[in-house]
Amino acid sequence: MNPKLKSILEDVWWNIGIVCTSIFVFTVFAMSAPDLDRAGLGGLANLFFPGLIGVFTIIIYLLTRIFANEWNWIITLAGVVFMAYVSTMLFFDRL
């Protein structure tokens, strides 16, 4: 792997920044769902689920940094993909 790319992938602040950016993007996406005004308290899931998934991703990422210093970016990637999946399901009212 390219050493410059590897240093970016292994950097803690890049990974946390990607997760925080994903939280913002997918929260905005989930909150722009049609018929959200008729969802009642169920609409709160669209607001909180992307953030909760992001916080858990950051916690798991930081815990795995304690035990292993390589390949931790896979945790970030998995968290962002799962956040995208949940946000899409919330947008289409399938969750």
TrEMBL record:
Transmembrane region(s): 12-32, 44-67, 73-92
Keyword terms, alphabetized: Membrane, Transmembrane, Transmembrane helix
Domain of life assignment: Bacteria
Protein name as it appears in the record: Uncharacterized protein
